[in-house]
Amino acid sequence: QVQLVESGGGVVQAGSSLRLSCVASGRTASGRPFSNVAMGWFRQAPGKDREFVGSIRWSGGSTYYADSVKGRFTISREKVGNTIYLQMNTLKPEDTARYYCAGQSVGAESYNYWGQGTQVTVAS
Q: Cα(65)–Cα(86) distance, rounded to whole angstroms?
């Protein structure tokens, strides 16, 4: 079974930085090692819908970001370890949310694996 495990959340002051990590491991239902097309980060604040933060294509490394985080957040990857990172700089109170890692495996039309999330709280 494929597992995505996030880490790195915490409580920080506005203007600070945090780096989240997400490690993907395991095998798909067909028994093959997890092989992804893309991985991404989403977040959900209390009372709000889950929203896209950013993503990275596994082949080529192209990245995409929500306008709200563009210029402040950076996604990177380590292909060998199936790991992605979310470097978050100049954090704002409105960035407070639970951050989820997602993976899109080969053959899937959208993200089909999700982590449990890690909480980020930005105090003003």
A: 11
Q: Is residue 54 within 8 Å of 76, Cβ to Cβ?
A: no
Ranges of the chain with pLDDT below 50: none
**What pLDDT score was predicted for residue 43?**
98
Whole-angstrom CA distances from 53 to 26, 27, 30, 31 are 25, 26, 30, 30
What per-residue confidence (pLDDT) applies to 33?
72
Give the 3-state secondary structure percentages of the chain, helix then strand then coil, rounded to 5.
0, 55, 45
> Which residues are bridge partners to 57 per DSSP?
38
Q: What is the pLDDT of residue 26?
A: 85
Give, rounded to a whole angstrom, the gap between the first and last alpha carbons of the chain: 40
Q: Is the Cβ–Cβ distance between 20 and 85 less than 8 Å?
A: yes
